[in-house]
Amino acid sequence: MDTDKRRLSVLQLPHETIKYIFDKLDIIGGLFGAVLGIIVIILSFIGVLGQYYIGFTIIVGSVSYLLLRQYNFHSNQIKAENGNQITDPEILCPRKPPRSFLYPKNTDNISIPNAHKWRILDVIFCFVLIFAQILWYTSDCTRPDLYFILIAIASAILGVEIAIPQSKGSALSMLLKILYISFIIRSGIFFNYPSVMGSDAFTHASIAEVLSNSHFIPPFEISGKYFYYPILHIFIATAKIIPGVDIKTGILIAIGLGSIIIPTLFIYLLGKTLCDSQIGLLGALLFNLTNVVIVRGITNITAGSVTLCCFSIILYFVYRDKKSYVILALLITSIVLITITHQLTTFVVLLALCCITLTSKGINNLNKEKNKAPPSLIVLTLFGVLILFYWSITELSSANSFFEAMVRAVRSMALEGGAYGADKLIVGQQYHYTAIETLIVQSHYLIIPLLVIPGILLWISSKDSRKKTIGISTGLLFIVAYGIPLLGIRTLLTGRWLPLLVALSILPVSDFVIRSVQPIKSNKLKKITLFVLIFFFSLIMITTPAINRDNPIVAKETTVRDQFTHSEIQAVKTTSMISTGDVKIDSAYYGTYRLYGGEQTIIGKGNLWSRIRSLDVLGKNKEVTYDTLYILRECTLHEPIPVRQSDLYGDSKNIPLSEDIFNHFKLGDYNLIYHSKGIYGYNIRGP
């Protein structure tokens, strides 16, 4: 009998050890993050890396959680009524914040103190946004610095209002305000110039334009791999045809509005399911202010924009308390839709769902609990099989499938994956910036981990297995997304993972932001602190060059403008019709020709796309062709354009053109066949 008991205790020992480690995983993660940040700084100091900012960010994020855990979240000074020390994280750090600060228990019969002050705050919110819109409307192709400050003030006011609901029905009004300010930000960028914007957006808009005119998907010669992934173009073409608008407005309706409404609604619902309405609302607000989300939602649309919407739907359905066959059908429909939308983001969604499922299974087995809401293994298996099947039959060229190309890509990554180097992938080419410019330019990848690290550590510490699952899964995915570029590997394009990871991590971030102000005893000081935090978060996010290429606030000498004036669009339409040979243009102008040049038909686009070439600004190509049209834009003498620095894909540096290039055409053996508002068209004189 004693032998059996000893055997049982020996068998239970590993389980208890693992459970103990899981209970302390947030502390382990915080200490690991601090050590990792120190290692990154040391490697940067000795010249292996150049990532001082990343190392410092990891340290600050990790240490901030450990400090708040010590003094607020898991304080050992709190005592139970019987005098025993409280150690349960859910008691010390309750799932919902104190209602005295955030929620009245019953708002039906409670009068909100100083309600007139909140009405004044609503008036200020509306006035600030209206004034910002007036500034935008009265400025031609620019947005004054005051515009960005006003948007940040309005965002901060809304954040404070979210933290203190005014009535039972305030959630709906808050959602409408979030949608309103999100639309103001995106439309202000999108309609600052008459053209669409984004390096990828011109290609997608052109395919959608042809689809709307011909009423069927363009062939592989035009659509390329998107012949098998047409959902984005179908949505845009439909939004263009039904209301009878142009392609740019169709993009705003299909993607701009869709990427605001759908993720906002489902992130709020997910936050309400896992925490409460306040966390869901703040998560929806911060999500819409994040620059990588704005990039994918409007400033550079890709097929991944649709995936982002579907992913937010899937996350909510996965964690929805009540399950039904209707929910299962909608879940499967979203998965099928993602599969035929985009390859890379489909892989990221599958990876995220696998992490969530495996982590959830492990936690529930460890705690011997019934699984609350992980993705169904059957659905996940079907998702994986569907992806592999569809990838195996999609073509990248006339002879190779995507599946075959993927195998070659893995082999290439193993042999030559680190060719780019960490600095080039993460911060890009090195430019000389001022301190404030450096802070803002690099903030697009620094501020996210700065808030995500303590947020996911907070959720990892939770006794709620669903929150712990999201915390662990998000942490693993962020390690992959930021770790692969540190190895110099570009193949997986982890920068494009970030919008999906933000959707997964924004609720932990919101939870951390709210709980981080709880140690402050004064309610007024809490409100001021929240206002300042959200103000600077939004100001940094909406002023980064990534979403202000048309109107850069900082780094103007190195930011490539990707929106174009009426004269630049008209030059494309005119010169593309008079030229029969190749057209050589600067790389920043390339997409404009794809969208606005030639006839908007399959034959017209197919003929034009095969003739567009990048202008050899370095003079390496000495080949002379007499039927080639050369297009020069005078603005490129002071505006930078991408100039390739090596044979590596995407390795370019943003610099203005030299006057020698213009003089070469002006003084050389060339005919000036087009000239309008600083745009010149040349061809070589005949022999």
Automatic annotation (TrEMBL):
Please, which domain of life does this record's source organism belong to? Archaea
Q: Where are the transmembrane segments?
A: 27-46, 52-68, 120-139, 145-164, 171-193, 226-243, 250-271, 301-319, 325-356, 377-393, 439-460, 472-491, 497-516, 528-547
Asked if Membrane is a keyword of the record, the answer is yes
Give the UniProt keywords, A-Z: Membrane, Transmembrane, Transmembrane helix
Report the protein name in the record: Glycosyltransferase RgtA/B/C/D-like domain-containing protein
